[in-house]
Amino acid sequence: MKLSRRHLLGSVALFGTAIPFQLAAQPSSSVEKDIISNNSGALHVLEGRERLSLDGAWHYILDPFDVAGRKPKARRNFWENTIETPATGLIEYEWNSSPRMMLPAAWNDAEERLDYYEGPVYFRRLFTAPIEAEKRHFLHFEAVNYAATVWLDGNLVGRHEGGFTPFSIEVTDCIRSGTAHSLVVRADSRHGPKTLPGLDFDWKNCGGITRSVSLLSVPRNFIRSSFISLRNSQIEAAIEVDGDAGTSVKLNCPALGLTLSGSAGEDGKITLSAPAPDNLKLWSPDDPHLYNFTITCGNETAIEQIGFRVVEVRGREVLLNGKSIFLRGIAMHEEAFGAKGERAVSEAEARALLAEAKALGCNFVRLAHYPHAAHTARLADEMGLMLWAEIPVYWEEIDYSDKGTLALARGMMAELVRRDSNRASVVMWSVANETPQTPVRTRFLRTVIADVRRFDPTRLVTAALNKNVDVGGVRDGESIITVQDELAADLDVVAINQYEGWYGKRDPREIKQVSFRNGYDKPLMFSEFGAGAPYGNHGPREERWTEEYQAWLYEETLKIIAETPDCVGLSPWLLKDFRSPRRWHGRFQELWNRKGLTSPEGRRKKAWFVLRDYYRNIAVPKG
Ligand code: GCU
C-alpha cells in the first residue's frame, strides 16, 4: 500500500527515515525554512487524552545480517505476518513461536545474549482496540533506538530516525474496531557517519523500543501542540490545531481566574494571550510552582501543568525571574541506579536520579547527551530542578556536510523542543557536545540554532565546547585557558568541558596553575570535568583511579572554578558511573565509565561529599 499524504503528515518520515530504505527525499526548501513550527511531529501525550497502552509482551525476531531488510522475500518478510499454508510455500519465521520481550526496554538489558547486539530487530504484537469511527487514531512511540520502520497488518505506515524523541503515525484509515491488528516495528540500532550520534560515542548503544508505545485517539479536530509561556509580562499560548480552520479552543486556569478562547486560523495556528495576573507565582528551583491548565478543543479536554518563569542572559550573568543565578549542577546519563545500569528508565527511576541530584545540593541538571524521557522534565518541573536538554550531535565522526544529517539534527531538535516546550524546568537547549571546530560544523549548528531561536525565544541556547586554548601564564607552568570556538558567538551561554588533572599531563596538585578566562561577553559555565574511580577503590590521593584522587581533583577544580570570573555554574561529569563500550581498563572500568560521583547502585564516593559541601557552602551572591 502506497503511503498516503496523510500518513506522511502523521508520521515524521518528513524529517527522518530508516534503514533499510534509503534516506527519504530531503524536505523542500519552504518546509526547511521553518522546520520546528512545520514539524507536525509527535502528538502530545496529555492527561485526559484517550490512550491505549501497547506496552507489554511483544514477540521479536533478530536479523543480524539484515537479510529481510536487504533482500525482502515472502518467506522472510516478517512484517507480513504470514502463516504457512500449502499455498504460501515455506515461511521461514513464525511469530507465535518467536521469543518474547517485555517492552518498553532496551534489548541489551532485556536479553543477556543481546548485551552488545547492534543491528535490526523486528517486534510484533497484536492488539484490538475499541475504535470510535468519528475519531482519528495515531500510533505513538516515545522512542525507538535508532531507526524505526512500522507496519500495520503488513502495510508500511511510517518510519522515524532518531533514538530519543517521540513520533506519531496516523492509522485512522487502516484501523477497525474489535479487529485484531498486527503491529510490527523494526528497530535498527546501527550507527554511521550520517546518523546522530555518529560512529563513536561514550555510552552504551541500547537498542529497541526503549520507551512507551500507545494508540492515541483524538477528535477530528484536535490540539497537536501547545506552547504556554510568560513573555513580556504576558501569558501567551501558541496552540496548533490539527483539523478545520475555525475550530474553537479554550484555555482555562482556575487558580489564576484565567480563561482564554479563540478559533484556529487557516494554518491551524492560534495565539491566545493575556496580561500576567499580579498574583502570578513564578516557578523557580526553590519554589517550583505549577498551575493546572485545561485545554479544550472540540470534545477533548486535556490537562497541562505549567510553571511560569523567565530565564535570560544579562551581560555575563544568567537571570531567573530577573535575579542572577548560579547553576549548581551535575551531568547525568539516562541510566537507572542498579548493578546493570539499565537504559529504559521508569518514572520512579528518573525520580531517584533527580532526587540524588537534589541531595547533592543541585538546582540544575545537564541531561547528557540526548533527549531523556518526557517524564524526566515533568519531574524536574515538580522537584524544582533546572535542566539542560541536548540532542546527540556528539564528537567528530559525523558527516557535517551531509544534507540528510543536517535535516536529521533539525528534526530531532524540533521534536525535542516541541515535546518539552511547556516544561518550566528546561532552561537551556544544547545543540551539540565537543564537536570539531570546522566551518562545515559551524554552519551545521548555526542552522539548528536558528531553528531553535525562531521557535522558542524563551530559553537559552548553548553547546558543550572543548576547544580550550592555553594562552600561557605569567609564571612557569602556569596556564591561562580560554575557549576559542567560533560557535560561541552564536550561543547564549559558553559551556566548556575541561579535564585538567585527568586527561593531559597535570595531576590535581597542578590544577591550581590553571585559570580559565571567558573570552566572550557572555556567561561561562563548566559543563564537564571529572575523574574516574571505582567505588571502594581507596589509596593515596596521588594514585589515579582511587576515590581519594577523584575527591582531590574535585577540591582543586572547584577552587579554580570559584576564581573564574563570570562563571555562572557547573555540571561536573557526572552523577553515576555508566556503561560504555569504550571503557576497556580491566581493573578499573570493565566497560563502565567510572567518573560517576556514585557507583552504579548509587553508593556515594568521596567526591560526592566534596561537591555537596561546595554547593552547601558556596556563598554565591547570585541566586
Ligand atoms: C567527554 C564527553 C563525555 C565522556 C567524557 C569522558 O567530555 O563529553 O561524553 O563520557 O568526556 O571522557 O568521560
Let me know the largest β-sheet.
8 strands, parallel, barrel
How many separate helices?
Answer: 11
* Topology, number of strands: 33
N-to-C CA distance: 58 Å
Strand composition percent: 25-35%
Level of helix content?
10-25%
Structural class by sheet pairing and helices: alpha/beta
CA-based shape: globular
Bound molecules: alpha-D-glucopyranuronic acid
Alpha-carbon Rg, integer: 25 Å
Largest sheet, order of strands side by side? 21-22-23-24-25-28-30-31
Low confidence ranges = 1-34
Give the mean pLDDT: 91
Domain Glycosyl hydrolases family 2 sugar binding: 53-219
Domain Glycoside hydrolase family 2 immunoglobulin-like beta-sandwich: 224-309
Keywords: Glycosidase, Hydrolase, Signal
Family: Belongs to the glycosyl hydrolase 2 family.
Summarize the structure.
The chain is α/β, with parallel strands linked by helices. The strands form eight sheets. It has an eight-stranded parallel β-barrel with strand order 21-22-23-24-25-28-30-31, surrounded by four helices. Strands 3-2-4-9-6-7 form a six-stranded antiparallel sheet. It has a four-stranded antiparallel sheet with strand order 1-10-5-8. Helix 8 runs parallel beside helix 9 (439-455).
